[in-house]
Amino acid sequence: MLKTISPLISPTLLKVLAEMGHGDEIIFSDAHFPAHSLGPQVIRADGLSVSDLLRAIIPLFELDSYAPPLVMMAAVEGDTLDPSVEARYRDALSLEAPCPDIVRIDRYAFYERAQKAFAIIITGECAKYGNILLKKGVTP
Q1: For residue 25, what are the contacts with CB-CB under 8 A and spacing of at least 6?
Q2: What is the domain-level CATH number for residue 100?
Q3: Residue 90 within a domain
Q4: Which keywords does this chain's UniProt record carry (predicted)?
Q5: What pLDDT does residue 1 have?
Q6: Number of domains in the chain
Q7: What DSSP designation does 9 have?
Q8: What is the pLDDT of residues 107-116, one digit of tens each?
Q9: 108, 111, 124, 131: least buried by Cβ within 10 Å?
Q10: Which residues contact 128 (CB under 8 A, 6 or more apart)?
Q11: pTM for the full model?
């Protein structure tokens, strides 16, 4: 254990966060996301919600200030989003600074971004459209 590091952050996740450079992207996915078939490094965080993990990592993680740093999947045509999911994520991301706008992109565009991501963290999140991409910024 380390002082001031949340016990929700596994050693593997801490290593990944430290290895990321500015502009690298990381996905925190719901339990249903096809992470293993998309490619990059996959870390399991079973039993943890995305919002709890966001709350744990945001004190350690600088969001990009030059490009939209937060991306979520848009609802498929004919489907609906639960606004409480984004609200929970915004709340978690607002611990250190005001939460930037969250951009919504379609499912396949999100999958393409996930293929290029530095890592995908599969959580126990069960909320529909509960995936979020974070773009790392320059750490001051």
Answers
A1: 113, 116, 117, 118, 133, 134, 135, 136
A2: 3.40.1650.10
A3: yes
A4: Carbohydrate metabolism, Cytoplasm, Fucose metabolism, Isomerase
A5: 73
A6: 1
A7: S
A8: 999 999 999 9
A9: 108
A10: 30, 79, 81, 82, 85
A11: 0.95
Residue 109 structural domain:
24-135
Domain assignment present for 3: no
Q: What confidence tens digit (pLDDT) does each residue in 29-81 have?
A: 999 999 999 977 999 999 999 999 999 999 999 999 999 999 999 999 999 99
Flag whether 140 is in a domain.
Answer: no
Residue in the block written with tokens 């969001």 = 63
| One-character DSSP codes across 30-93 | -TT--HHHH-SEEEEETT--HHHHHHHHTTT-PBPSSS--EEEEPPPTT----HHHHHHHHHHH
Nearest one of 138, 133, 9 to 72, comparing CA atoms: 133
Instruction: Identify which of 35, 135, 50 has the alpha carbon closest to the alpha carbon of residue 84.
Output: 50
For residue 15, what are its two tokens?
């290593």
pLDDT per residue as tens digits for the range 88-107: 999 999 998 999 999 999 99
Q: How far apart are CA 14 and CA 60, in angstroms?
A: 9
Task: Name the residues annotated as catalytic.
Answer: 22
What is the C-alpha separation between 7 and 113, in angstroms, rounded? 28
**What single DSSP character describes residue 63?**
B
CB 118, CB 41: distance < 8 Å? yes
131 found inside a domain: yes
